[in-house]
Amino acid sequence: MTGPRTFFEKVWSDHVIADLGDNTALLQIDRLFLHEMSGSVAMRQLAESGREPAMRELVFTVIDHVIDTAPGRGLDQSRSKAGPEMIRAARAGSRRYGFNFVDVDDPRQGIVHVISPELGVALPGLTLVCGDSHTCTVGGVGALAWGIGSTEGEHVLATQTLPQVRPKAMRVNFEGKPAKGVYPKDMVLALIGKIGANGGIGYAVEFAGSAIREMPVEGRLTICNMAIEFSAKYGFVAPDEITIDYLKGREYAPKGAAWEAAVRYWRSLPSDPGARFEHEVTVDCGGLSPQVTWGTSPQQVVGIDGRVPDPASADDPGTRTLIERAAEYAKLKPGQPIQGVKIDVAYIGSCTNARLSDLRVAANVLKGKRIAGGVQGICVPGSTAVKRAAEAEGLDRVFRDAGFEWHESGCAMCGHMGNDRLADLRVISTTNRNFEGRQGPATRTHLASPATVAASALRGQIADVRGLIG
Amino acid sequence: MESLVRIKGVAAPLLRINVDTDQIIPGPEIMASVDESYARWGTGLFAYWRYLDGAGGAHTPNPEFVLNRPPYDRAVILLADRNFGCGSSREPAPKALRGFGIRAVIAPSFGGIFFNNCFRNGVLPIELSIEAVRELAGQVERSQGRGEISVDLEAQRITAPEGDGYGFRTPPLLRRMLLEGLDEIGATLARRGEIEGFRGRDRSRRPWAYRPGLA
C-alpha cells in the first residue's frame, strides 16, 4: 500500500500476522498486562486448558484493583470478600509462570495504567492489551493499547496474538490554548459532551492538534484514558519528542543501540500529511471552562457555570428518559446550577488523574487551606512512585494539613469493589465513570479535574477553581 | 464451547441508552466470590435494578423490573438501546446474561469490549437499527410478552412475533465461534508456521519489542 497513512494504519499493519478476512486480522501482541481481577481468571483458564504461556517474558502482572490502600496494608489485604483470594491467585500464577511480577510491596507498584508508562512497559508503536477497559490510557505514549476480556487474555497468554476486527480511523483535534483552570480532564469531558458516550464506537482515535502537541505526557495519558468513555476502544497520541524524552532511561525501555533503533522507528510512525480519517472532530480549547458531570454518564457534562438540563429539551424520547433517570438518581432538579451543589466527599485518585502533575495541581489549590467541615477528602496516588515523589516535595503535608487522607497506591474507590464507604454519598471525583453505583450503592459521582475537586473540597460544594488560582 | 445456531423465545425490552457493564453486573456481585459458574453470575445480573436491596445483598426481587415480571423472567433475548455494554471490560457481564438464560441481545450498537466478550460466552450480540428494535419491542409489548422472537444465526435473520423478518450481519470469525463451537485458541495455534514466520521477520525489525529493556 502506498500513499499517506495514519499512525494507526502503520502500527496495525506492522502487527498483522495473518489476514483472517472480512476486516479481521490476527495481530502480534507485544505486551500483556495482568492484574488480580481479570488476570487471575485468565491465568486460571489457561491452567485449566493445560496450555502454557507462549512468550512469558512479554507478560507483566501488578496487584492494584482490589488491594486495600490503607497505610500499612498487608500483602493480601482487601475490603472485599473475594479480594484476598484473587490477589493470592495472581501472585501464585505469575510466579509459577515466570511473568514480570510487581507485588504489593514493590516500590514500582501502582495502578496498572500508571506504572505501564512509568516503567516503559508501554512504548510507542507497541500493541499492549490488558483485561481492563482503561488500557487505552497508555496510548498517551503512542502505544496501540486496548482493553480485553479475560478469555481474550487467555488467548494472548496461550499465543501472544489476538484476532481483532479492524476499527475505523478517527481524529480529534484539540486546538487552541486552554484558559486558566482548564486541564486535560476538562478537554476530554467537553469532547464526550459534544460527541456522546457512543461517539467513538468502532473507531481508533488519534488525539492531535496544537493543545496536544504542547501537552506533557501525563496530560495525554489523562485524555487517552477517557477514550473508552465515548466507547472508543483505542485512543492514542502519535509519538513525538515529548514522548521520547519521557521514556528515555525507563526500566523496560530499550537502551543503547536498541534505543537508537527504536527512536528511529518511532519517528516514522506519526500520521503522514494528507492521511485520511473516516471521521474528524475539532474542539476549541480556548473557549472551554472547567467541566463537571451532573448525571450518570460521562456525556452528561456541563461547564462549571452550567445547569442540569431540562428533559423537555431532548430531541427524542430515549434521551428524555435518560436525562430524567439520571437527574433522579443524582437527586438534582432540571435547570439547577451545578455550581453550589453540596458534596460529601472529594476524591483524588485513579488511572485518569492521580499522577504527580495531578497531585501538584490539587496541592496548589489546597496549600495553606482546610477543606470544608463535613467533607471527607481522600487522595490515593496513582503509583507508589508517584506517592514517594509527592512526599519528597512535601505534597503529602499539603494534603494532610488541608484535611485529606493520604493513601497507599491502588485503584481503591474509583469502582465499587466491596467497600461501602461511599454509599449514598455525593462525591466529586477525578475518576472516569459516574455510572449508577460505580463508586458504591446510590453513590452520586461528579467527574472533574483535580483542580476542580480540590476547589470543591475547600468550599464543600461544587466550585469554580478559577477564583482560587493565580 | 457448544454451538449456538437458533434462539427462539421470550424477548424482554430494556430500551435504555448507554447501559454500562457496571449495571449488567455490579462490582459488589463480582467481589462476592471467585465462583465462575454461569449460575452464579446469572443471579447478579442487573442486581441494582432487579433487587430491592441492590447488589451483593439478599436479592429481594423488585417486582417493577422487567426481568422479574412474567413472562419476561424466562427471556432468552434482550431488546436494548444504543451503546449497550459500554464501560468496563468485565467478562462477567455476558456471563451474567448467559447465566440468566439470555442468548441474544438486539441493540443499535454495543460497547466494543463487551461485544467481543459475548461471543466467548455463548451470547450473540446483534446490531439492528433503533427503528427495528422499537418495532420488535412494540410487537412484544402488544402481545404482553407472549409473542416470541426467533434468531437464526446461520441465515443471519430475525423473525418478529408478527412474522416480519430482519437481516443482520455478524463478523465471520466470531460467528463461527458460536455456530461451530470453534476453539479459538486451537485455531490460532494451528497457524504456528505463519506466526513463527512473522516473528522471525519482525524480531530483526523491532528487536526491542521482543525483549523488554533490551540494551
Describe this structure in words.
The complex is a heterodimer of chains A (470) and B (215). With 470 residues, chain A is α/β, with parallel strands linked by helices. Chain A has two domains: 1-288, Aconitase, domain 3; 291-467, Aconitase, domain 3, CATH 3.30.499. Helix content of chain A is 31%, strand content 18%. Chain A is built from 15 helices and 19 strands. Chain A has helices spanning 7-14, 38-49, 83-97, 112-118, 150-159, 184-195, 210-213, 217-225, 241-247, 256-267, 317-330, 356-366, 384-392, 395-402, 450-459, and strands spanning 16-21, 24-28, 31-35, 59-62, 100-102, 127-130, 144-147, 161-165, 168-175, 203-208, 234-236, 279-284, 291-293, 301-303, 345-348, 376-379, 404-406, 426-429, 444-447. In chain A, strand 3 (31-35), helix 2 and strand 4 form a beta-alpha-beta unit. Chain A starts with 6 loop residues before the first helix and ends in an 11-residue tail after the last helix. By secondary structure, chain B is of the alpha/beta class. Chain B folds into two domains: 6-182, Aconitase, domain 4 (Alpha-Beta Barrel), CATH 3.20.19; 184-215, no CATH class. Helix content of chain B is 38%, strand content 14%. Chain B contains eleven helices and eight strands. Chain B has helices spanning 21-24, 27-30, 38-44, 47-50, 92-100, 112-119, 130-142, 172-179, 184-189, 192-205, 207-210; strands at residues 6-9, 11-14, 77-80, 104-107, 124-127, 149-152, 157-159, 165-167. In chain B, the strands form two sheets. Chain B has a four-stranded antiparallel beta sheet with strand order 1-6-7-8. In chain B, helix 3 crosses helix 5 (92-100).
